[in-house]
Glycosyl transferase family 1 domain-containing protein
Amino acid sequence: MRIYFDVSTLNPQKVTGVGVYMLQLLEHFSQEKDLEVHPAVKISRYKNKKNIESILPGRKAESFLPLKWSSDGLYHGPDFKLNVKGFLPRIVTIHDMIVFEEKYNRPEFFLKGIRDMTNVLNSSVDAVIVNSLFTKSQVLKYFPQLEDRLHLTYLGCNRSRMAGQGPSLGLPEKYILFLATLEKRKNVLGVIRAFEALKVQGFEEKLVLAGAWGFGAEEIQRALESSPFKNDIIHLNYVPTEKLSELYQRARVFFFPSWYEGFGIPVLEAMSLGTPVVTSAGGVLEEISGDAASLVDPGSPTEMAAALSRVLTDQAYREALIQKGLKQAPRFTWEKCAQDTVEVYKKVLGRS
């Protein structure tokens, strides 16, 4: 079974959610029998081919010449792109429907994002993979005609990928961790406000914001600069994969009250490393957390501060969250994600 797996959007310098998904699938596809995987890049990305290959697990990226491909096999666009024309069956993965949420998008990207997504999902795509029931519901909200072509494959969590060597991050002794791109939809302003409410109560923990700047950075930066506790807030920028274990494990609590997610890998990563989690109620974050996290209203700094306070001071509750998290995270594995993805391939090719 031949698969042309599109790696055109991989960024070797900054591997975040979708990049993790691509690399973990490629790594675990090697355990699947009768699967011939060909990583492929667009011609326009061919100059970046060697950089992309530097992080591929033991594979070469092929040039992207769809007109020369035979109809034997299928194309998978793991980043909701369809960079192929012709007779190959086509599969795309939709990680979220954020492009339809105007308030979380740059104005210059909003209409283009809707147009691109609509073009993909209104095309003759043979199957659409979604990574959560929440994302499935969002796709059906805008594209109900796709119901028979939607396939759920939960993402995974891999502790071993986060362990590595290198210089220490120089972290404070006690801190609350937020890890994500610092952008509007991640509710960074809410994180800051909740932290301020906690500090007023006399807590000594600092706040570590780990992530590159994104949409809405100016407003976040103003909030940081004007915060009465700005000296207790540390920004680390993007943290490489090999340092994530240190970052999570040394944190007193992982705080992730995002407004909108398609999945939420960091929540499971924190749980897998024994760090208690406070995250948003509702949506996919509650879906993947179950009862293993403290669930809060992301619009209420007071409620979020109260949840953080309880995790930091109630030892029995804290330990219960840790133990539940250690049981919850292993329910989501990349092995299962790869196996479920292969089943979608088989269905599309009529081999199941």
Observations:
- The chain has two domains: 2-156+333-348, 160-331.
- The chain has a mean pLDDT of 88.
- The chain is about 35% helix and 15% strand.
